[in-house]
Amino acid sequence: MAVRPFVIRRVSRETQDSFTMEMEPRDGGRNFAFLPGQFNMLYVFGVGEVPISISGDPAKTETLVHTTRAVGTVTKALCRMVPGDTVGVRGPYGSSWPVEKAEGSDVLIVAGGIGLAPLRSVVYHLQTHREKYGKVALLYGARAPEEMLYRKEVEYWRTHYDMEIHMTVDRATTGTWKGNIGVVTTIIPNSPCDHTHCLVVICGPEIMMRFTVLELQKRGMTPEQIYISMERNMKCGIGLCGHCQIGSSFVCKDGPVYRFADVKDIFTKREL
Amino acid sequence: MENLERILAEQPFLSGMKTEHIKLLAGCAKNVAFKAGEYLFHEGEAADFFYFVRQGKIWVETFIPQKGPVAIQSLKEGEVLGWSWMIPPYKWHFDARAFDLTRALALDAVCLREKCEKDHDLGYELMSRFALIFAQRLEATRLQLMDIYGNSTKNK
Amino acid sequence: MVSTDMPSKIVLERPALQGLFDALRSQEYQLFGPTVRTDAVVYDQISSVEDLPIGRSDRQDNGAYRLTASDRPSLFDYTVGSTTWKKFLFSPAAPLYAASRDGQKFEISGAVEKPLKRAFIGVRACELQALAIQDRVFTEGPFVDTAYARRRQDLFIVAVNCTRAGGTCFCASMKTGPKASSGFDLALTEVIDGNRHYFVTEVGSEAGEKMISRVPHQDAGKAESQAADRLLERSAAQMGRTLNTDHLKELLDRNFDHPQWGKVADRCLTCANCTLVCPTCFCANIEDATDLTGRDATRTRYWDSCFTIGFSYIHGGSIRNSVLSRYRQWMMHKLNYWVDQFGTFGCVGCGRCITWCPVGIDLTEEARLIREHEKK
């Protein structure tokens, strides 16, 4: 449970309530290696710890990047940090997106709202090892255009990365948006991926994942092809405090990334 | 059988339907009742019925993690509950709960789908009436989506 | 490993027991054992045999605990009280680390504990199993609780076999008692026979063998061994409760939506007593605090309970809002999920949750009702 001090290099606002932090090890020591999908416990001095997925490029280990929403005591303290401040880091913990298993297949990435943050590391990884994968597509849905993450960067991916991107919003005021309007399940038909030879990775609010999985299954995808990322209250991050349990599973150890076939009841058992 | 036919003929949803078609529907119908608070069905279950509400009130709900069951529509006497029985894979997309003691006429969807396959006229009659329901619900949903009462920057 | 010189059973006469306590203390063990406090048997630091609940027994039932007088000067007629041994190994308030700030930097220093040799006196068979269960939770996963592991290492255990079953006990159903089979250094069975008062003692380890060699004892004769065995057979037949564990995990798995959960939820107060008195519950909360200057911070781990509404809180609300979901989570974890996670049930049949529930909820009864009224 050793906490490593990291120094904040940059804090930038993404949307009204979300922000990205870039940080480096304070001791100048080991670079920070992680697998896409994993999370860290971030510590703010005297305030507390919070689990946050890693959003950076797994190939660039000198800088650690986290994007999160400022919704609670610790995250609000984090978003007020300035370059030079210290954040404690424990991790990386948890399971990762199946980027190795997906080699040789198409990959469909479905993100809802803040769910793009834990999936961005997958986008980077796929691009770095592009020759190992078939078609790559991103479907990104958010409530409104101003609530989308990484908008400039997503446009960069559209033109510079070998992937197809479709975005959609629930609603948009005239003049702010030229793209698709409708929930993210409505753009699933736009996916160019061969559903018989494809892995899907999904991240977003639970209800969004629930309906997305239903829609994908309607189109013939099997639970073995689908991966989701779950979120629960975490205090220790290492399977000892009991808080993050969903049924028999500890989200911090067995998740947060799960193959849907292994947790099929997860959306039908209410208040599990 | 006669009684069921009479009840069906009285349903606003079936107004103008030929007697022979009403008879076919009656063959798949039965009276049901639900206690206040009782669930008629849950999301994901097989949609083997649709219902004419005869008395009481039904809430159509979805379960939102952390918030619990959220009602998105209510149906009362004279209204119809359930269109999932017509659309493959014939599974309910929502939960339905009796708000009050509710009496309804339940139509067996398996029976009815078979009859519609045999008698396309019957199928067309039902489909055109349900199309109206779909249109009404879609318009209502869009209005709900616009969140017309609130500010878009309000606390989520 | 017990040496082959040591007979499997020996006898300690009642007056020799203080000698065992003294031997332990001479080896720098701090003694912890049962004692009476505010009309209940609790575990606390003790120094002499006189601190034990001499001549005390207990009457336990759903939501009821009464300390009574035994009809003889027994030391161990009571069964289990409100406290468990876990409070000495898995502290209710454990300092994790301290941090101090200097400008934009801060330094962290881990809490270092002075090693302490502890001896637990009077550990029941169910409690030995509970210790083994917590060992698995805290030391056999991918991450180890090193503080727990250290405290566990320096532990000497004097177990006591229950010659009397408690009103809410069901260790026989859980196959965890009443006889201690492993995990102890010494195990005592108290026999009071007319004027004679002695302990048939089993040696369970080399440490136990060394310790008992400092105390006057003799080999157990056949009559004495049999007297002890008879008492244990009797207590196994006297259990206050039973729990049918046959395919229990699968039964609960099938019945996530059973109406019985609604019925028990109408009674449950989510007071968390059951989790506090349970010897295996291990959920914990972690809290950070600073002093008034904001320069020094501490991080402490506290006992927590899945019954609290904040337990499953993430931004937007708690996952388990309803009382139903929280009661179900506790019972499912104890009798179903625990098997997947750790290979055994989380319940050892000590009955504390039944005794200390203010509304008298009995999980053996709940399991029975679910089994009997399962919708086929």
Task: Give a written overview of the molecule.
The complex is a heterotrimer of chains A (272), B (156) and C (376). Chain A has four helices and 15 strands. With 272 residues, chain A is of the alpha/beta class. Chain A folds into two domains: 4-93, Translation factors (Elongation Factor Tu (Ef-tu), domain 3, Beta Barrel); 106-229, Rossmann fold (3-Layer(aba) Sandwich). In chain A, the strands form three sheets. In chain A, strands 10-9-8-7-11-12-15 form a seven-stranded mixed sheet, sandwiched between helices. A six-stranded antiparallel sheet of chain A has the order 4-3-6-1-2-5. In chain A, strand 7 (106-112), helix 2 (116-128) and strand 8 form a beta-alpha-beta unit. Helices cover 34% and strands 29% of the residues of chain B. Chain B is built from four helices and eight strands, in the order ααββββββββαα. Chain B has helices at residues 2-10, 19-26, 109-118, 120-145, and strands at 29-34, 39-41, 49-55, 57-64, 68-76, 80-81, 95-98, 102-108. Chain B has a single domain (2-145), classed as Jelly Rolls, CATH 2.60.120.10. Chain C has 376 residues and is α+β, with helices and mostly antiparallel strands. Chain C folds into two domains: 9-90 and 114-236, no CATH class; 248-288 and 306-372, no CATH class. The mean pLDDT of chain C is 95. The A-C interface holds A 1, 3, 5, 7, 26, 45-49, 69, 71-72, 84-86, 88, 231-233, 235-236, 238-243, 245, 247-248, 250, 253, 269-272 and C 96-97, 99, 101, 104-106, 108, 137-138, 141-143, 145, 256, 282-290, 294, 297, 301, 304, 306, 311-316, 319-322, 324-325, 329, 332-333, 336-337, 340-341.
Task: Map the helices and strands.
The complex is a heterotrimer of chains A (272), B (156) and C (376).
Chain A lengths: L3 E10 L4 E8 L13 E6 L3 E6 L10 E6 L3 H7 L6 E8 L12 E7 L3 H13 L7 E7 L8 H10 L3 E6 L10 E2 L16 E6 L2 H13 L7 E4 L15 E2 L2 E2 L6 E3 L13
Parallel strand pairs in A: 7-8, 7-11, 8-9, 9-10, 11-12
Antiparallel strand pairs in A: 1-2, 1-6, 2-5, 3-4, 3-6, 12-15, 13-14
Chain B lengths: L1 H9 L8 H8 L2 E6 L4 E3 L7 E7 L1 E8 L3 E9 L3 E2 L13 E4 L3 E7 H10 L1 H26 L11
Helix pairs in contact in B: 1-2, 3-4
Chain C lengths: L8 E5 L3 H10 L3 E8 L2 E6 L10 E6 L2 E6 L16 H4 L3 E10 L2 E6 L7 E6 L1 H15 L6 H8 L1 E6 L10 H4 L11 E8 L2 E8 L2 H7 L5 E2 L2 H15 L11 H7 L4 H9 L5 H5 L6 E7 L5 E8 L9 E2 L2 E2 L4 H20 L9 H5 L6 H10 L4
Parallel strand pairs in C: 2-8, 8-9, 9-10
Antiparallel strand pairs in C: 1-11, 1-12, 2-3, 4-5, 6-7, 6-14, 10-11, 13-14, 15-16
